[in-house]
Write a structure and sequence with these properties.
Strand content: 15-25%
Shape: elongated
Strand order of the largest sheet: 1-2
Structural class: alpha+beta
InterPro entries: Phage_virion_morphogenesis (IPR006522)
Protein name: Phage virion morphogenesis (Putative tail completion) protein
Amino acid sequence: MAGVTLEYVAGDALRAMQAMGAALADPTPLQRDIGELLLIIHQRRFRAQESPDGAAWQALSPGYLKRKPKNKDKILVLGAGAVSLSGGLRYQTDGDDLLFGSDRPYAAIHHFGGKIERQARAATVYFRQGKGGEIGRQFVRKDKSNFAQDVKVGPYTINMPARPWLGTSPEDDEQILQRVLKYISQFSE
């Protein structure tokens, strides 16, 4: 009886598997790479003003739009840089976990929506008084004012619509998967 025998020595494959195991024992470099990618994904989302599923964020209310001081054409953006919601995006590695989100206290209400109950309070409002004694109809900052008035503000509720900004789309998930595969492949070469 004739036969053939194939002998396979798996040394290279075993070394590659050991290298992958060692790399995955400390996932920190991969987590940092994914964290940076998530920052890019979410910054892009803020520029596009859309949720992870591609739906446009609900427009600003006309009342808020009138009193918004700047960036009137941008939703979820009041100031620039570190003072904006998108400027508060952070990631952190913690053992096997990659944590991603915002350190801003108002991040959740913007993402999920909800009601903000404001209590009645006393306040001082500041105006600019003209040379003829007429008082302007718009509030000004205290340092720009020459006339102040104490007022009572009654309780009111702000209904904040949900504008989901945190999460990944299927396309984002594919990008993350490609980063993981690229990371693992470097140990199998």
